[in-house]
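Justification of computing resources. Each target in the renewal requires a structure prediction run like the one illustrated here; the chain below, 483 residues long, is used simply to show the kind of job we budget for.
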Amino acid sequence: MSEKKSITKNYIYNLIYQMLIIVLPLVTTPYLSQTLGAENVGIYGFTLSTVTYFILFGSLGVAMYGKREIAYNQEKPKERSIVFWEILIMRFITLGISLLAFYFGFCLKGNYSVYYKILILELLANSLDISWFFQGLEEFKKTVSRNIIVKIISVIMIFIFVKTRNDLLIYFFIYVLSNFFGNLSLWLYLPKYIEKVKFKNLKILKHLKPTIALFIPQIAIQVYTVLDKTMIGNILGDMAEVGNYEQSQKILKFLIVLVTALGTVVSPRIASIVAKDEKKEIIGYLENSFRFVWFLGVPVMFGIMAISRNLVPWFFGDEFEKAKLILFIGAPIIVAIGLSNVTGEQYLVSVKKQKYYTISVVLGAIFNVVINFTLIPILKSTGAIIASVLSEILVLVIQLIYVRKDIPLSTVCKDSFKYIISGVIMFLIVFGIGFLLEPIMITTIVQIIIGGFIYGIMLIILKDKMLYQTLNKLKNKLVKSND
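Resulting structure tokens:
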């Protein structure tokens, strides 16, 4: 572990990993939307949102806490081995309790009990997930390689076996089994990084309190990432509305990954720096993270707003007309989550100020529930996305208030005006093109290419620092490769 990992390489590895989880299902989205239909997609989204709560309660805050604790002990093989087994055993116990509660609560009766029984495998898959361990070690390549083959096979199986609206059960099995074997495969790498420990000396309970401290914000986050689908289904009883919301969320989550993948890489690095008390270096990483969010998040936000009208008809099909508006309204969530990822996970959690992180997301969750109850009966799924956007903005504002003494607002917003100006001009042109062309795949491709070109030209005109740094890095790598 003496060799310092490259932030750039780890970002690329983590981006591939995160995108793989979301992109491959996204590849199948047009096919599944038209094969299964809005109602079946809604059933899938609704039941999956239910099991997510049990996964959340069973996992506590282990993913975030475990990654941080392993990062603190990167250079100490014995200590990190002890920490790994203590956290893992605790997670096995809590997920086991959660699985029993899920089985007796949902699997024995009800309209969707057959789907809930299949989703028991999803709980088991999560108990085997040790990606947090490798993220803490900054070994992101491992978490990428283990999933590629499994995920690709799952996509192939979807196209082979899911043929009609009666194949929803098959789709469920493919989904849960791919997660199960994907998580299981990561254990093959474990012996290289873990030393033998005496299990009788393990202190499992000492991790309970800090994981619960991080568990509370995880509950709050799930309120406005999962509860919205549950509320749409329960309040409206309309699975087609859930289906439109579910498919829109897939695209938004994919785009959010592009912007936040850097955070997963930087947070363990910051945690390791905290242990050395190098505050100036921390601020340097955070400043680059903020600039990256603006640099990439703004064009992604304006881009999806500009192409949503033309994208939805050919990508999802006629049953998902409402997804156009959901995507348009939901786009600002990309930048809001990107920025709060820096202030929250990268900074507050890494420097052990998770109390403020918890307060921000809990208040956001409460606000989200109130707005959902108010807007969903009136605006249906559109009301849910409005609530989500407003909640994420509130979380960001609260976190900015808490970190203002350590991270000035000038640091957060540095050069942001360049990206916003460039993004607005790109949006106006790309949105206008959408009205002139038919809503087919080639139109969307043309819009994306033209949008990227316009945004790049604008940043060159405005002499953006990050763009020039990126171009210089590429230039230097090309020169080295030709030497």
